[in-house]
């Protein structure tokens, strides 16, 4: 829409009101009963619509930002397209309602009145008004008159949070609305009177649509998630009621129903998820309609939308419109058990590929009854002619938009150009000054990040860097194709074009951020695979390397020029922040990987402090309230003019508990951040930690694991009204005097800042406006134009808007141009070949490709080594044949025997010196393990060979001494370990037998309680448990015996070891066979290889047997056959146990094994109960021990006090309880050197007095020893009481002051004595 043709709604409203008052015109909409509401009774739109929020007492103007244009379309919203007249479409864009003129491309806007967004819209059948149902707290439905756009009806109280659908009846007199979560309230309105007729809860799940039957005014239908419901307005004795009947799917799978059509005879045809039509009669499915041969009516979701000219019209997610014969559908009936009716469409219109139709609105003009406008969830609006004639024009795509959330947005540094990308696989470039799209390019994968190259990299501003969901980064070059005509002579199309300059794949997951270094020499790309890749910037971008970070990358921020050192700040979604030094592009890094572990870095991991902040704020609030109350009390005393009166004591208020310290798990996500100063940065967190900006710095200690770090911000800044609405994105104006924030709720905030305020201390007052959808339109991208005159916002609802910082009139005057300047093509661009693109999503990344090349190189080197080894083996084979011949020529006592030649390990068993000699005489033959003799050398005699053998044998025997000693040491160590293990086991058994039973005796009575003695399980129970244990094989006694056998084998005698070690030497002297560790190692390796070959052969046999046993396709599973037989035998057997022919089922029969299992279970439960009781008794015993210890301590304090009191003032302490030996049986095993010395003395005395058996003597001595220990413990408690207070010297006279001090001391000590005795008495008589 051009600025000259654009007219605001307020101006039109004022003009329309003036014309109505001057001419006295009164427009009416007649209702069925004759009542009417005059449309001259309008509400004031300027008072209704939502306005920006401005911090009170601030000087921020209300018109800080002015809406210029809406570029997007929320194509994923259900029913987001309505037709008012032949040229005007209306749809919802965030908090705006857009009225779009098809012919002139002009847009008009209506803001939501609640500020919470718009839920749904619906045009009146007469097209003279339309309903706007909003979202928010207690939202309203507002009726706007068309074309004046003045509100004249407001329907209040229909739902709690949001409306999801509204619809008029056939004559437009009634309006039906249904709410969203949490109430799902269905309401029928007499909207002209602004009154509720009927209301009822629709269902407890999401409702997609509700409508009146066009043939029966008293019937309604609603559908939604997994349901369809049929309603009737019934006249009961209590009045008119809404009665609903839930649809029964029966044998058909339940499905979401997004569309349906009412038939004249009361039936309903609905769609389904799988593409077939469902014919409902009553509340049940009569038949499922499909195509011939069981084909689907549509591929994917299907929605019927109209019934005209004997055809039922349907649309689907396959981009097709089909017409079905109504008579065939109405009389359809299933022919078999399948419940389906096969039918082919009468007419069909394929709109296009990659088209997904979700709603259709028809023209209301009789001349254009076949003209429809369709909503495409792929991001387009289509104009369709459904006349199905030979002259029917092709479908026309009126407009195309992005589909889904905007993933990337950036603006040019030198022109009013904007680039966007989304997951719909397109990259679009807009001229936001002329308010139009310039060009669009489509790729194989969706875009996830976008950045416009700075002027340091590309002076003409023609380079775009775009990241995609498959990890590919593409460099796109923007140019004006019209300027190529001079060179090529061709006639180009369009005002701009994108050309692929280079494509590379640094990541294996979606690219989430791209950023150029401040000098334009390095490009950094971040991804959700937790890596950041660096590239050199030039004509061709070359990889430098990558670093790994602790979490998925959220954003990349290079240090500005004001900082001294150049650093990259990496923000991770997991709450980690990493600062790395940029790599040196000039350094060559040869290696097998691009990983850069040498880059120095610092890590910060955010730890939540919000709960602590809230706690401190609550403490400050309570203290302020106390101070205020105290001040008011003092003022009341002053006003009473009686200063001598004591202040009245207020009733003590019970303070609530302070908020606890809470750390969210998992941690809150990190949304955005930026540098404040070198080493310091601000973070905006989501989730629980929203509502603050956190000022953070890197710790000096960087040795800790980044995943285990816990770093807290050193400062914070509250963000007002943002506890549940965190900051998702931000940008500064070029002079840094405005901070623009995109919020999670889809609103935009503007904070005026003081110049040079990097600490954001002036971030207090703000201007806020709801722009995008409040539920899912998170504002993730916000940018300022290069001249700071325009602001661009993009959200997850698919909408993006442009705002001006100047009023439209001033903006028009300040702009020299009416459209942006598109960069000119480079010289020679038309002669360059197209860059090679990466189209395969599974293509290798740069790192994977380099590792693959290195593996290929290693494979080639290995093949060369294998070839060299094979050549060497061939040579050794030749030498081995010569060795075999030489062996035959040797004397018989030196010649190797056939056994040594047959076994492959024979040569390895020989000493290396022997093999060295034989290598000069023997050669390797073709047959492995065989030696071939050959004639001896002329200069070697048989005597020399025999002498040489004797020397080698004696040398090997002398070398075996240390080996034998080593074996002896190992055996001695094993024996010592066995002894320690056995002694510890015996000590454990002895202690368990002594401390098996614990008895607790009451303090003030003779009651006592003892623990259960838990012996080991009986032998039969252990055997039963072993038999019934599911993990062990049955009947494997040998395995069980092996399982219970100790691992430590009995040690052999050292002499036996020597004999065993010497045996190989003796044998070697006979058979020339020596045993050493190398031979044993090689033998084991050969055994393992043989076992592996046997295992492979066994596995092959098993596979062959498995394939041989594979049943045929027509074979029935024996288990299924057996299950059917058992079901036939047992199904319907309802005989009583008292019947004569009753037979106990197998699974209910009791046998010895089941009864044994039951007994084992009972023993286990009994043992668990006894163990629990033992634990409680032990806890009671421990409590008594602590109490007795406390009482003895308090008694000692009493005796200490009594030392300073006269004897006549002493109060005797109560008798203290004692711990009996049976209460602590484990102490019988506790001894020290003094106890052992006492035991020896008693034993000597006993031996001198009488002579008895050794066992009786030991028992008697232990009993005497326990008595002495008990007497000593008893006397220790009374030893202090024997100490008497020293009497003062007689004749010593005290002064009056000293006498008074003595009396005061006595009073204090008496009080202390009484208090301690009370505590002792309480502990003795009341604690147990």
Automatic annotation (TrEMBL):
Its main location: cytoplasm. GO terms for biological process: sperm axoneme assembly. Residues 1-37, 620-661, 1026-1058, 1268-1299 are annotated as: Disordered. Residues 859-886, 1072-1106 form a coiled coil. Transmembrane segments: none annotated. Residues 1-19, 620-644, 1042-1052 have a biased composition (Basic and acidic residues). Residues 645-658, 1286-1299 have a biased composition (Acidic residues). The keyword Coiled coil applies. SUPFAM superfamilies: Quinoprotein alcohol dehydrogenase-like, WD40 repeat-like. InterPro entries: Quinoprotein_ADH-like_sf (IPR011047), WD40/YVTN_repeat-like_dom_sf (IPR015943), WD40_repeat_dom_sf (IPR036322), WD40_rpt (IPR001680). It comes from the Eukaryota. Keywords: Cell projection, Cilium, Coiled coil, Cytoplasm, Cytoskeleton, Flagellum, Phosphoprotein, Repeat, WD repeat. The keyword Secreted does not apply. It is found in: Cytoplasm, Cytoskeleton, Flagellum axoneme. It holds the Pfam family WD40. WD repeats lie at residues 504-537. Belongs to the CFAP44 family. Flagellar protein involved in sperm flagellum axoneme organization and function. This is Cilia- and flagella-associated protein 44. It comes from Notothenia coriiceps (black rockcod).
């Amino acid at each position: 829409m051009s600025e000259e043709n654009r007219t605001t709604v307020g101006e039109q409203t004022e003009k329309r009101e003036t014309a109505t008052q001057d001419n006295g015109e009164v427009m009416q909409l007649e209702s069925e009963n004759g009542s009417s509401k005059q449309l001259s009774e309008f509400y004031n739109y300027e008072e209704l619509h939502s306005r920006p929020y401005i911090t009170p007492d601030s000087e921020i103007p209300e018109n800080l930002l002015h809406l210029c244009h809406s570029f997007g379309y929320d194509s994923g919203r259900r029913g987001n397209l309505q037709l008012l007249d032949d040229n005007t479409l209306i749809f919802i864009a965030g908090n705006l309602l857009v009225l779009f003129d098809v012919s002139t491309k002009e847009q008009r806007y209506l803001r939501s009145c609640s500020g919470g967004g718009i839920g749904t819209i619906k045009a009146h059948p007469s097209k003279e008004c339309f309903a706007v149902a909003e979202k928010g707290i207690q939202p309203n439905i507002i009726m706007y008159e068309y074309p004046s756009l003045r509100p004249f009806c407001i329907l209040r109280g229909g739902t709690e949070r949001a409306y999801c659908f509204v619809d008029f009846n056939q004559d437009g007199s009634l309006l039906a609305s249904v709410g969203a979560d949490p109430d799902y309230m269905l309401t029928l309105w007499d909207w002209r009177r602004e009154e509720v007729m009927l209301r009822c809860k629709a269902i407890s799940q999401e409702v997609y649509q509700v409508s009146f039957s066009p043939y029966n005014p008293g019937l309604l239908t609603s559908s939604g998630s997994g349901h369809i419901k049929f309603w009737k307005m019934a006249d009961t004795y209590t009045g008119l009621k809404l009665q609903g009947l839930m649809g029964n799917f029966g044998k058909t799978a339940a499905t979401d129903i997004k569309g349906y059509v009412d038939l004249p005879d009361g039936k309903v045809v609905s769609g389904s998820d799988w593409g077939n039509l469902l014919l409902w009669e009553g509340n049940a499915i009569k038949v499922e309609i499909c195509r011939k041969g069981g084909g689907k009516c549509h591929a994917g979701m299907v929605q019927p939308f109209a019934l005209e000219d004997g055809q039922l019209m349907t649309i689907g997610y396959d981009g097709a419109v089909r017409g079905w014969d109504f008579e065939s559908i109405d009389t359809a009936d299933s022919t078999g058990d399948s419940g389906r009716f096969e039918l082919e469409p009468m007419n069909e219109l394929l709109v296009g590929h990659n088209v997904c139709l979700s709603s259709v609105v028809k023209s209301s003009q009789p001349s254009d009854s076949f003209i429809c406008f369709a909503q495409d969830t792929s991001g387009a609006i289509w104009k369709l002619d459904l006349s199905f004639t030979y002259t029917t024009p092709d479908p026309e795509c009126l407009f195309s938009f992005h589909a889904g959330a905007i993933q990337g947005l950036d603006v040019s540094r030198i022109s009013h150009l904007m680039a966007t990308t989304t997951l719909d696989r397109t990259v679009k470039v807009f001229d936001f000054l002329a308010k139009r799209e310039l060009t669009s390019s489509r790729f194989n994968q969706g875009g996830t990040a976008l950045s416009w190259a700075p002027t340091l990299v590309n002076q003409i501003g023609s380079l775009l860097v775009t990241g995609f969901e498959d990890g590919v980064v593409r460099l796109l070059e923007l140019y004006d194709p019209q300027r190529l005509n001079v060179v090529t002579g061709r006639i180009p199309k369009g005002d701009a074009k994108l050309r692929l300059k280079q494509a590379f794949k640094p990541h294996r997951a979606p690219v989430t951020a791209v950023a150029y270094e401040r000098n334009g020499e390095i490009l950094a790309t971040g991804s959700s695979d937790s890596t950041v890749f660096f590239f050199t910037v030039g004509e061709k971008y070359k990889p430098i390397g990558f670093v790994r970070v602790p979490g998925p990358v959220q954003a990349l921020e290079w240090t500005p020029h004001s900082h001294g050192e150049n650093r990259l700040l990496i923000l991770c979604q997991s709450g980690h922040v990493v600062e790395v030094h940029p790599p040196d592009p000039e350094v060559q890094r040869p290696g097998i990987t691009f990983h850069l572990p040498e880059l120095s870095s610092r890590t910060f991991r955010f730890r939540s402090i919000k709960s602590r902040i809230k706690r401190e704020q609550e403490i400050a609030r309570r203290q302020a309230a106390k101070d205020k109350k105290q001040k008011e009390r003092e003022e009341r005393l002053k006003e009473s003019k009686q200063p001598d009166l004591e202040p009245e004591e207020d009733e003590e208020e019970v303070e609530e508990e302070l908020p606890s310290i809470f750390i969210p798990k998992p941690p809150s996500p990190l949304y955005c951040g930026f540098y404040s100063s070198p080493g310091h940065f601000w973070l905006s967190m989501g989730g629980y930690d929203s509502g603050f900006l956190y000022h953070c710095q890197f710790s000096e200690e960087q040795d800790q694991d980044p995943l285990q770090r816990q770093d807290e911000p050193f400062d914070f800044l509250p963000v007002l009204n943002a506890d549940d609405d965190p900051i998702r994105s931000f940008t500064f104006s070029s002079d840094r005097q405005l901070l623009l924030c995109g919020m999670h709720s889809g609103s935009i905030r503007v904070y005026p800042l003081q110049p040079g305020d990097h600490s954001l201390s002036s971030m207090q007052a703000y201007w806020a406006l709801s722009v995008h959808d409040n539920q899912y339109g998170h504002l993730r991208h916000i940018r300022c134009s290069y001249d700071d005159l325009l602001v661009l916002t993009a959200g997850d609802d698919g909408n993006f808007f442009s705002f001006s910082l100047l009023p439209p009139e001033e903006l028009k005057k300040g702009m020299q141009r009416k459209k942006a300047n598109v960069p000119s093509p480079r010289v020679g661009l038309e002669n360059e070949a197209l860059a090679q693109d990466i189209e395969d999503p599974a293509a290798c990344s740069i790192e994977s490709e380099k590792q693959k090349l290195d593996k290929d190189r290693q494979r080639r080197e290995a093949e060369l080594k294998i070839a060299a080894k094979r050549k060497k083996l061939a040579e050794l084979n030749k030498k081995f044949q010569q060795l075999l011949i030489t062996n035959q020529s040797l004397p018989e006592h030196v010649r190797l025997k056939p056994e040594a030649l047959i076994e492959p390990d024979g040569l390895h068993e020989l000493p290396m010196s022997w093999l060295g000699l034989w290598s000069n005489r023997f050669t390797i033959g073709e047959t492995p393990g065989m030696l071939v003799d050959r004639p001896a050398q002329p200069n070697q005699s048989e005597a020399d060979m025999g002498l040489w053998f004797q020397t080698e044998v004696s040398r090997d025997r002398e070398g075996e001494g240390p080996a034998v000693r080593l074996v002896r040491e190992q055996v001695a160590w094993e024996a010592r370990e066995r002894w320690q293990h056995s002694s510890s086991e015996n000590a454990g058994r002895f202690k368990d037998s002594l401390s098996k039973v614990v008895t607790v005796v009451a303090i003030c009575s003779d009651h006592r309680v003892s623990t259960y003695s838990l012996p080991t399980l009986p032998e039969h129970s252990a055997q039963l448990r072993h038999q019934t244990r599911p993990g062990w094989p049955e009947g494997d006694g040998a395995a069980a015996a092996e399982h219970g056998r100790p691992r430590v084998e009995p040690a052999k005698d050292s002499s036996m070891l020597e004999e065993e070690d010497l045996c190989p030497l003796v044998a070697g002297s006979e058979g020339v066979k020596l045993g050493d560790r190398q031979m044993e190692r090689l033998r084991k390796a050969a055994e393992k290889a043989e076992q592996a070959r046997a295992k492979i052969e066994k596995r092959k046999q098993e596979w062959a047997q498995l394939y041989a046993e594979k049943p045929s396709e027509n074979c029935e599973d024996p288990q299924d056959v057996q299950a059917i037989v058992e079901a036939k035998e047992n199904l319907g057997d309802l005989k009583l146990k008292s019947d004569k022919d009753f037979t106990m089922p197998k699974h209910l029969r009791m046998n010895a094994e089941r009864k044994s299992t039951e007994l084992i279970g009972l023993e286990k439960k009994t043992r668990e109960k006894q163990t629990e009781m033992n634990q409680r008794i032990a806890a009671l015993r421990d409590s008594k021990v602590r109490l007795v210890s406390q009482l003895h301590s308090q008694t000692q304090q009493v005796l200490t006090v009594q030392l300073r009191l006269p004897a006549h003032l002493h109060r005797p302490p109560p008798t203290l309880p004692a711990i009996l030996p049976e209460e602590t049986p484990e102490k019988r095993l506790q001894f020290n050197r003094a106890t052992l010395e006492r035991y020896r003395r008693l034993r000597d005395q006993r031996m001198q007095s009488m002579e008895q058996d050794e066992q009786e003597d030991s028992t008697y001595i232990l009993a005497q020893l326990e008595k002495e220990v008990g007497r000593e413990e008893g006397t220790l408690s009374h030893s202090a009481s024997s100490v008497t207070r020293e009497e003062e010297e007689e004749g010593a006279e005290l002064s009056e002051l000293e006498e008074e001090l003595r009396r005061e001391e006595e009073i204090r000590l008496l009080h202390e004595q009484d208090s301690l005795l009370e505590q002792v008495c309480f502990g003795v008589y009341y604690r147990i």
